[in-house]
Amino acid sequence: MSKPRGQGEIQPGQSTAIPLSVRKISKQFQVGKRLVQALSAVSFEVKSGIVTGLIGPDGAGKTTLMRLACGLLVPDSGSIQVLGLNTTRQALSVQRSIGYMPQRFGLYEDLTVQENLDLYADLQNVNPENRPRRYKELLRMTGMAPFTDRLAGRLSGGMKQKLGLACALLNPPPLLILDEPTVGVDPVSRRELWDIIYTQVREKGMSVLLSTSYMDEAERCKEVILLHEGHFLGQDSPQNFSALLVNRTFTIRAADNGNKRELLGALSLRPDTIDAIMLGDTLRLVTRTPMQPPEVERVFNLDPRLWLVKASQPRFEDSFIDKLRREKEREEEARGGKYLRPRPVIRSSNEENTIMVKDLRRDFGSFCAVRDLSFSVRRGEIFGLLGANGAGKTTTFRMLCGLLPATSGTLRVAGHDLRVARAPARAKIGYMAQKFSLYTDLTVIQNLNFFSAAYGLHGRRQKERIQWALESFELTELQNNYSGDLPLGYKQRLALAAALIHEPGILFLDEPTSGIDPLARREFWSYINALANAGVTAMVTTHFMEEASYCDELVIMAQGRVLAAGSPSELTSRFRSPENPEPSMEDTFIHLIEEFEKRQAAGGQEP
Fold first, then answer.
1. Comparing 112 with 569, which gets the higher pLDDT?
2. What is the set of domains in the chain, with CATH numbers?
3. Half-sphere exposure of 544 (CA within 13 A, CB side)
């Protein structure tokens, strides 16, 4: 967060031709027994008065670079100029001149919303006479006006992000640095945060540098800077990066009853494929070389009677994945490593409906977090539970995992009634929590030893499963590192490995890909698809609406209730219009939430 501005610092309203200039910056860290090169001779400039995206996979060096730019770290070599100030020699002046929001908000959770605003207004020397007007403006922009007396620790993830951004903007800085400002928040909150950011750029002439894992957000930036494992890969507009993939991007739609998941798995293994993902009712394919649709049919053995192939416009995400995939291939070839490789898992439930929920309710005192919730999930199905922050998804997950008793209703998981047999059910499920819940002060191998023993594995079987986890999730070289020191993507891999180590038949994944980069998300979903094909049931919550396309069935929640249920294609088809003939899941989600909020504001009753 920003610190008080004094004489010699850049004041609000002032501008500089180059707000941020990075020259041959290098930085190393000692992590466990390894020396990690976080940045290697990185150079670039951020232009004034625009939003610039800092894009790269986990471990690329984005957070390190931002902390260096804020004067919070000292580089091993090179220099950084921020608003004409040297970050090494004038670190305090830099910190007083800029706005900075770290990944974890920088809030004081035992203070109220208003007390956080007051504290940061004091730290930033905001004139007391100007505070009421600025408070009113920021509270209106963030929608936080009704919550000024609420403790920051009691806010949802989206509300915390908006409060953190408001605190960074109390004294509008000429340069605003945002580290993953929208991670873990729902699409409606993400859109609101972007409206706030662009309002500041438009009205205050602010320069913004932000990192993001959402490629649709990267496309909203005027320029993007690409990093990979500490190296600079390029800087340009998203549109110019996308133009490099003309005649290499295609959509594939089933003409009959083709199995999209099986085709996706087959396409992903082809050497001519750079990327293959589900996108609504279609598969999106990025080829290694330019092609025309007939050539795609021939090269990928697609029967035109079953699959319809059309050329599509390239997106920035396509070019990003192309660059990362080629870098990854070069690295893997050089060191003989492996990609994440799905392996079959033993089914532990023969029931057709592995999860059955009827009239589920959970009260916390006078507050009802979940009410009248009913659905069923079949074996081998991927079932999605979507909703805005605070909708009741995590509470529902905790009840289904036997971690939280239901107030009323029926819950059956893996053939067990959770009202009377939670322990036997827990032995048959794997659970990956929304927040990293392994032991950060234990190494990777120590965590795997602990969780495998907790699930009853021992002897030769335990050793086999630990070796499987290390190899399958590319953790062998990191096995002696403390889990708390791992990049976020590797923390997610370790958490999934721990959840799968006892070969459960049902897997609960609570926002498993939040904050990890697109390449890591693809590897993650390739694994989940393979598990589903092997008969494992997966139940998932996610804020990445494109990931909803991987689900067979969805429930969308708001304030503990079901707003809509059905397959992804069924839900999106409800909102087709002449203006939007192919609505995305994000369009559908936002439309449903906005309709719900309008009914709430009008005093309407929900079904």
1. 112
2. 20-236 (3.40.50.300), 241-335 (3.30.70.100), 342-428+537-607 (3.40.50.300)
3. 27
